[in-house]
Design brief:
Layout lengths: L1 H27 L8 H6 L6 H27 L15 H11 L1 H13 L6 H21 L7 H32 L2 H14 L7 H18 L3 H21 L13 H20 L3 H9 L3 H7 L1
């Protein structure tokens, strides 16, 4: 419990520090006056796109990579299994297909999420501005005329979040919660909830919750954090590619991937792959160590 609380405090502190450092970068490197930064962040304009994307990168790196590094320096990697940065089993290789085949489930959860925020309700008034700002910022980074190099956009949207967020959530938070709860399902779903909440985009809360849970199961099934890193990267990279081809990061209407045939085939594939993962899961031999159950108890229960 103390390590978990300390890590949450470290993460929130580093996110705040990352915001301050990012604002410093915006001012010192890109020449945005400090007095104008709040306006630039609340009402982003295309001519500030390069500055904003690098400020976003700095915030992610300081806010998510730094607390992991500090935790390792303070406590070492023993309690979090060295972040499980090991090769893992064949499930790591299949994680891109697994996350893509989950598209129907993720899209269905997005529809349910939308229904939970009725049009014209106080929830819409509370959540819509943040959602629109995030969408506007993302589109600005991806628009060809924004001045942002395509690789920088790809780095910011696909690579940095996949690595940094997985280090924090599935690398540190999930194993700490596993030792606290002694229940892998509780640790996976609580971590997924925190993962979704920290994005502060409630129109996408359920899809991120389900994706976060799937990423958690990929870690324990594969025995490696690389399972979730690769899947997270593929999920974000596919959204990036969708925008490049269709001009939207959502499932484009009228395309094959929005057709019922695709949804049916993808759903069947997802079920088959999950069954396959359960049969070849690394969890049986990882469970006692991961949950912090003494070897003597583990052997008696085996």
């Amino acid at each position: 419990m103390p390590q978990f609380i300390l890590f949450l405090a470290l993460t929130l502190t580093c996110i705040g520090l990352g915001t301050v450092v990012a604002m410093g970068v915006g001012s010192a490197v890109f020449g945005i006056p400090l007095s104008e930064l709040p306006t630039v962040l609340s009402d982003p304009q295309p001519h500030y796109a390069s500055a904003l994307i690098w400020m976003n990168n700095v915030t992610q790196l300081v806010g998510f990579a730094m607390p992991v590094l500090l935790f390792l320096l303070l406590f070492g990697g023993g309690n979090i299994h060295g972040l499980l940065l090991k090769p893992g089993n064949s499930i790591v290789m299949l994680s891109p297909i697994i996350i893509l085949s989950a598209t129907p489930l993720i899209d269905l959860s997005a529809m349910v999420n939308q229904m939970l925020i009725p049009e014209g309700s106080w929830l819409e008034h509370a959540f819509k501005p943040t959602e629109e700002l995030a969408e506007r910022m993302t589109r600005m980074f991806l628009e060809p005329g924004s001045g942002v190099h395509v690789f920088v956009a790809f780095l910011s949207i696909a690579i940095i979040p996949a690595v940094c967020e997985e280090l924090v959530f599935r690398g540190v938070i999930m194993p700490l919660l596993g030792k606290m709860t002694k229940n892998i399902h509780a640790s996976i779903w609580i971590t997924a909830m925190l993962f979704s909440l920290i994005h502060v985009q409630f129109y996408g809360f359920l899809p991120r919750l389900l994706m976060g849970a799937l990423l958690g199961y990929l870690v324990v099934w594969s025995g490696s954090l690389w399972g979730s890193i690769v899947a997270h990267f593929i999920n974000n990279a596919s959204a990036f590619m969708l925008f490049q081809y269709y001009g939207t990061i959502e499932t484009p209407e009228g395309s094959f991937i929005s057709h019922w045939i695709f949804y049916t085939l993808a759903s069947l594939l997802f079920v088959v792959l999950i069954r396959w993962c359960l049969q070849r899961s690394a969890w049986p031999w990882l469970s006692f160590t991961y949950l912090g159950i003494p070897d003597s108890i583990g052997k008696r229960g085996a």
